[in-house]
Fold each of these.
Amino acid sequence: MTVRPADYCPDCGTATTTREIEDRERRYCEACDRPVFQNPAPTAAAGVVDGDSVLLVERAVPPGVGEWTVPGGHLEADEQPAVAAARELREETGVRVDPDALELVDAELLAPFRGKRAVSMVYAVPAARAEGAPTAGSDAAAVRFFSRDEVEADEDAFRPHVPDRVESVLDAI
Ligand SMILES: [Zn+2]
């Protein structure tokens, strides 16, 4: 499987062709005689909620440099989603939470970005169950809490899916 349409087979490197399989146009490796499926990459995010505010990070690395988003990232191959969400939160903000304290809020397929597809599992946790002062860590230029009103007032400052995500995180706690 690949997260973007595969021009080459990831197993043998042969240029792929296209076949209609299961009513979808799919990439196909003639050498391996099988489809090269495109599937979304799993990611996980953790929203720390303090009253009517959520902790967000300003992205320092592509994609979306300068955009504010809920801390999160890709799962490692051997990692449970809640563990990944807690790890990404710690790496990006310095804030520590027990993965067991994270409440699953949502699981959604994100809009394609340069052909890449990802699905995000979104967790929430009250600030009272988190430890450490937020400081910008890896991949983050800045971190701070945003209120619901601040996010609604300036939606262009955020990645497109973030305002709705902030809503659902706040509503979950
Ligand atoms: Zn192949």
Note: The domain at 41-172 is CATH 3.90.79.10 (Nucleoside Triphosphate Pyrophosphohydrolase).
Amino acid sequence: MSEIYQGKAIVDRLDISVLNPGEYHLWFRATPNGLGQDQLLPVSVFKAAKEGPRVLVSAGIHGDELNGVLTAQQIMREAGPKIEQGALIVLPMINLSGVLHHTRDFIPSDPDASPVNLNRHFPGKQNGNGAQRFLHAFWNNLLMGNIDYCLDLHTQTRGATYPLYVFADYRIPAALNMARWMQPDVILNDPGDTGVFETVLNEHDIPTITVEVGAGKIHQPELVSRAVEGIKAVLGHFEMMAHSAAETSGSTIEGDTLISVRAETGGMAIPEVELGDYVEKGALICRQFDAFGHPVKEYHAPDSGHVLSVMQDPLREPGTLLVRLIK
Ligand SMILES: [Zn+2]
């Protein structure tokens, strides 16, 4: 008999192939925390009677990126009951400790361990530290064998913002298709990075895109509903649900080069540009002020490009992002 928590079954392993068609809301038991209490991840599965693609919508690998969490939950409510073919799996909150601590990182109980950016450690390690063991259980007992495609939801790191922005590895046609079907503001041709969820899933032949929905720790309803519509368009293209494609705005910017302008000294910084602006090489993009409020530094665009990210938190030490451009 399975254990029940808040009326929902706890599972140590998920195998979608043995589920009857229907809607399931489960707790996945990853690893225990330092009190020995189970870390229970919410998992929703919507399985149609007809065979088809199995698509994962995941969020909250970074615990303070709440527009992603809200997008995943809205997809679950709006698209879940309409799945006619294949299966939709939604994991709205992966990094539970980070969500509770208002941080992007996984917070270990081990006094010898620092907070961990989970999105550099996939697919985890069986005998590693707490974060690696958590990911190992997640990867092997929840994901493997259950999914064909993934859309992983994030936001810009707190203190700066993005528009609706998708990372896709252009060498993988299915990933590029998903990115374009979403009709985001910007797509980056991204070859990937070691240990990133998107990259490691792509290496396992599960085409995946990373979707950035604005800024961390705040709710941006307009961006969330655009992300929801974009994901529905992807599910429509996969013929998993009836949905007309998102209207082609024709305004998606695609690029492969990022230019990050970082603070060279400390002080309060005020940007002179907005998301989406096109700036010419040499244009003033940010001004910085010292502790007395006196101008201390002006920053100019090192090259021409569109503004992809702008800082929102004015407190900037040397090396902190001010403005990011895409070419
Ligand atoms: Zn993130």
Note: The CA atoms of residues 47 and 87 lie 4 Å apart.
